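Entry 14. Structure prediction run on the chain below.
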Amino acid sequence: MNNSLYSKKVVCPICGKQFSSMKAKINSCKVKKRDEDFCIHYMDLNPMYYDIFVCPCCAYAAPENTFRELTEEEAGILKEAFSGRKVGRSFCSERSLDDAIAAYKLAIYTAELRKASAGTLAGLCLKLAWLFRFKGDKQEELFLGYSLRNYLEAFNKEPLPIGNLNEISLMYLIGELSRRLGKLNEAITWFGKAVVSPERKENPKIEKLAREQWALTRSQHMESEKNE
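Output returned:
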């Protein structure tokens, strides 16, 4: 076994089977760089590969922090959905990038069955988009779009924070996702909201990012108008 990984025993709340899932040792994960949408690139081991627990018996999948948190109604829906389901690959040992992508797809499917919040779906879709980015796969854009749509819904309908995002961070991220998807006017608007947010003084790094990306997006927008 890779010395940078450790095994964690888990009990599936759907089928009741116990299994082991690998986790990355945090001190083994060296950051290489960070993208403007908070995507972290690692030197070698990427802990994201192991974020999702996948039951090898029924294919129920969810992030570690929500794997056991099921209401009675959710458990009933999922037991019916996963009854007799077969797992096409093993997720219990060292994972490849493709394994991580498959695990996140299963987690999104599970979250949709659970009628998870828009904020939860947005976060899962964003991380899947990052995995496709690591692979150089065009599906990155598709899942950035899903993430943006759900973050917009969450911003309008759900209490803050959304996951680990406070208001200014969420406004900034919506702006950056909009920029990456070519929605430059919308991006400028959201970056502008972040720059004047009452939370900016407590979040100077986000304010700085928002100002930088606002200027970049303005430049991109003017350049696109010249070429029309």
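The mean pLDDT is 94.
Filed with the rest of this week's runs.
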